[in-house]
Amino acid sequence: MKGNKISHALKDIENDWGKRQDKSKKDVQMWKKISIFFTLPYWKDLALHHNFDLMHIEKNICESVIYKLLEINGKTKDEINARKDLQDLGILHDLHPQDQSTRTYLPPAPHTLSKVEK
Question: What CA–CA distance (Å, rounded) separates 12 from 25?
């Protein structure tokens, strides 16, 4: 079924949490619960519903934030190539890589924690 048909079929349904009391009923509904995602305005227009894994999305975002705040080497996405992309786009000039003799210096981002703060 397409999202519009599903939304239309579920418009009057009430969430049924728990077991059915009257087991003698032969008519079985296709749905007994409505996902909270159906309240999103764009949900009925999606080609694929429930096509994401929230547990892993949350984990990856949390890890990325912690790695960036604590500056854990090899785990952050804030590397030389990302900084060069900023330079190519001409944005965030204070974060552009700076060449210093034989090394390239990456200035700290405003959200970077000091040793004491870590």
Answer: 20
SS3 of 80, please? Answer: helix
The string of DSSP codes covering 57-70 is: HHHHHHHHHHHHHH
pLDDT tens digits for range 49-92: 666 677 888 998 898 888 888 878 778 778 889 999 999 999 99
Compute the distance between CA of residue 39 and CA of residue 12 in angstroms, rounded to an integer: 13
Question: CA–CA distance from 106 to each of 25, 42, 74, 81, 113 (Å)?
Answer: 68, 40, 15, 11, 15
Q: Are 93 and 109 in contact (CB under 8 A)?
A: no
pTM above 0.85, yes or no: no
Q: What angle do CA 108, 109, 113 make, to 5 degrees?
A: 80
pLDDT tens digit sequence for 22-43 = 655 555 566 677 777 777 888 7
Tell how far CA 97 is from the center of its chain: 28
CA distance 60 to 40: 23
